[in-house]
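User: I'm putting together a teaching handout on how sequence relates to shape, and I'd like one worked example. Could you take Type II toxin-antitoxin system VapB family antitoxin from Mojavia pulchra JT2-VF2, show the sequence you're using, and then write out its predicted structure as tokens right after it?

Assistant: Happy to. First the sequence, then the structure tokens directly below it.
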Amino acid sequence: MQITLNLDESLLNEALQLTKISNQEELISLALQEFVRSRRKKNLLDLAGQIQFAPDFDHKALRETRHAAD
């Protein structure tokens, strides 16, 4: 896909230096991958404390069942 972007040149140059990437297309691709990874991690962290297990849930028994299947 071809897109025309107006980017901050000094920011672009700094990113190129930090990553040692010489191709702007690769740099933008890496930046998008890092952004997506960061957002997914943040979304998972937002779930912290929101999931409640049943009081009688036995996580140790679940581990033992998983290891027995290996």
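A couple of points you could highlight for students: The chain has a mean pLDDT of 86. Residues 9-69 form one domain.
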